[in-house]
Structures are given as structure tokens and as C-alpha cells.
Amino acid sequence: MAKITAFRVGHCTHPSCMALKGSGLHSLCFPSRAYLIDTRNGLYLWDTGYADHFRQATAGGLNRLYAWVTPVSFEPRESLRGQLKDYGVDPDDIHTLLLSHFHADHIAGMRDFPRARLMCSQSGWDAVRRLSGVAALRQAFVPQLLPPDVEARMAFVESCPATALPAQLQPFTAGRDVSGCGEIFVVDLPGHARGHIGAFVRGERGWTLLASDAAWQAQSYQELRGPSELSFVIQHRRASYYETLRKLHALHLGGQAQIRLTHEGAADTVPLAAP
User: Fold this and answer.
1) What value, to the nearest 5°, has the Cα angle with vertex 250 and ends 248 and 252?
2) Rounded Cα gap, residues 210 and 61, in angstroms
3) DSSP bridge partners of 167
4) Can you list the domains of the chain with their CATH numbers?
5) What is the rounded average pLDDT for all residues in the chain?
6) Phi-psi region for residue 15, left (φ > 0), alpha (ψ -120 to 50) or beta?
7) Which runs of E-coded beta strand occur in the chain?
8) Predicted pLDDT of residue 14
9) Which residues have a Cβ under 8 Å from the Cβ of 17 and sit 6 or more positions away?
10) DSSP element (H, E) containing 134
11) Which residue(s) pair with 11 in the sheet?
12) Higher pLDDT, 273 or 158
């Protein structure tokens, strides 16, 4: 069974109401997390959080607007490579880097893992691969963060056949076993970005859904309380977002899986306990 460890890799600040409708204008910290998934078939990373590459890529030009709208804090000690080494993991031993979507706060550390296979949804990659300038900025995508050999290393989750998920994970009924050993099942979580995906991870004591940006705060799926309507200027599709949120709500009520969001709360790096 897989083991998940969460790493806090920088954070940004934004008005609370952008993430949770009606929660006020006070500034809130949104940690950016990456997840190490230790499976029988190797080590996987779910996203990368921020990296120093982000600071460099947003230092000038249009990309400066990205850092201005969502002020970012990232210190050298928060480097994901460095944290993995401190944790006892050689970053070059990462088998696959799984990308939930291509917003900069999820892919800024891609260049720090040059030996890892890259894996994402094909629709997510097709939506950004040719973007630049204003079009990229509107998708929260910073092309300079991509490694030069990204195309050669890329694989798509759609290459894995869809298989039935256990009934306890309803309303999610099917996923793609990207681990090859029944420990990581990728599922579609549409709405936030084109090709946005999550992953059910089977641990010794149950299931955890890495839900990425399907919501920004746990209250959102617990109470079916969405973000500010203004957020849909940059999010992909409102109707799909709320459909996904309702599925998370039902999964939460079922109590058979722990749900983890990339930006919720402000907890420090801790191993995740399965439910």
C-alpha cells in the first residue's frame, strides 16, 4: 500500500472571499503543496509547488502581473528538492511527476526533476502547450517553467485504461491506475482548469483523494460553498466546477476517503494519515 507525505513548498496570499464566497476581504495564506507517493512500483510526486524558477520567470514582462495578483512567498529552505533530501529521498529517484494541471503554482519545480517521467491529462497539456503572452497569463500558465525536453518525457493518463473503483468511493466510479499496482487511480475533476485531475491513493488504512484545486478550502466541499464569482474569470468552467464540488461533498459525507486540497489551511509538512 502507498504512503503519502505532504510538503509545503511556498505560499501565496489572496483575499479570503476569492476562495470561499462570503468569507471576507482579509488576506489569507494559501500554502502550495506537493505530495510524495511511495508505491510498490516506485516514487511518484503529485505536483511541485513553487520553486525559485517562478521568481525568475515572473521578474519581468507580462509574467510580473501573475506575481502581483497573487503575491508569492518562497524561501530557499522550501525547495522541494531540498526537502526531499532532508526527508531521506534522492530527488533523482522520483519515477514519475504527476501534474494535476499547468497553473504555475503547481509546476514551478518541474525543472528540478530532470530524470522523472512527466504525466498529465492530454487535454490539459493540449490546452497550454502552444500558449504564450497574454493567452498564457490568462490561463495562469508560465511557459518558461517547462523543462526543454518536456515533450520527450511526457506521457498521458489517458494511456492507462479506465477501471472500476470500489463502491465506497462513490460518486466516483472509475479511475486510471497510473501506478500499475492498484495504488494510484487518476480521476477527472473538471472545472478549475482544462484537464484538471485528481488521484485516489490507496494506503494501509484507507483511501485519500488528492483533489488539487477542485476546491481551495475544505469548507467549500463540506458546505457546498463555492468561491467568489470573480474567480471564474480565470477558472475554466463554472458548471463543471460545481458538479465536481458536489461529488466531493458526497464523497465527504460518505466518510470513506480523506480529501486533501493543495491550498487548504496552513499546516507544516507532515506525513498524511489515511482515514
Assistant:
1) 70
2) 33
3) none
4) 3-261 (3.60.15.10)
5) 94
6) beta
7) 3-15, 27-39, 42-46, 72-73, 94-98, 117-120, 154-156, 162-164, 174-177, 184-188, 197-203, 206-212, 257-261
8) 87
9) 23, 24, 25, 228
10) helix 133-138
11) 31, 73
12) 158
Tell me the whole-structure pTM to 2 decimals: 0.95
Amino acid at 259: I
Distance of CA 80 to the CA centre of its chain: 14
Task: Using alpha carbons, select from 186, 178, 176 the residue that is nearest to residue 210.
Answer: 186
Percent of the chain with pLDDT over 70: 96
- Per DSSP, what are the bridge partners of residue 257? 207
DSSP string, 221-259: HHHT----GGGGGTSS-HHHHHHHHHHHHHHHHHTSEEE
> How buried is residue 3: exposed, middle or buried, by Cβ count under 10 Å (0-12/13-18/19+)?
middle
pLDDT digits (tens, 9 = 90+) for 136-174: 999 999 999 999 999 999 999 999 999 999 999 999 999
CA distance 47 to 211: 11
pLDDT bucket at 266, cuts 50 / 70 / 90: low
Cα angle vertex 10, ends 95, 118, to 5°? 25
